[in-house]
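Researcher: We're teaching a course module on how sequence relates to structure. For the next exercise, students receive a sequence and then see the predicted structure as tokens, so they can try to spot secondary structure elements on their own. Here is the exercise chain.
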Amino acid sequence: MLHSPDRDCDGCPRLVAYRLENRKDQPDWHNSPVESVGSLDAQLLIAGLAPGRRGANRTGRPFTGDFAGDLLYSTLIKYGFAKGNYAKTADDGVSFTNCRITNVVRCVPPQNKPTTAEISACQPYLKSEFTAMPNLRLILALGGIAHQAVLRTLGHRAAAHKFIHRAEHRLSPDLTMIDSYHCSRLNTNTGRLTTSMFHQVFGDIRARLDAAH
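Model: And here is the predicted structure for the students to work with:
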């Protein structure tokens, strides 16, 4: 059974305080833990870091409303993992195909930097995602923190699986994790991640899933 945090989850005092501050400043925003989107029957799970303050924390849908979402959603549509016209809102009608999106931390952290304790506090929700997805075959970890969180949640040693862009890690006979630099504005502005590089990752994913059919 899928286990998700309550709207007023009190597991992380720092994040609770920040949530209340945002609710006061922006009462029309979502300002709560952000639920995952996409079918639990999907073969692909994309694991991001945490909601952005003006992105998912505002709109209520992962990666929606900030720069990272611009690149992610356009890429999902290009490679057949989503349909529709992404308009940076949770009600833009975008639907997902064989793909689910989650964050390893469900609440927005100050400066987009969750603490180790906050990542650990959300670990049961991430584990719940894995156990509730019977067809899960690929996990795309966006960034080193998501990579490490996935490994810890599944009981693997981080030292045995180094984060490298486009690396593939066999976690079980039926489950592989693929790494990508996070599609953040910082990474794209500095050239650490280009659109072409991101598309290569999704090309790898599409080829893997198509070959399995």
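Model: If you want an answer key for the exercise: The CA atoms of residues 80 and 97 lie 7 Å apart. The longest strand covers residues 175-180.
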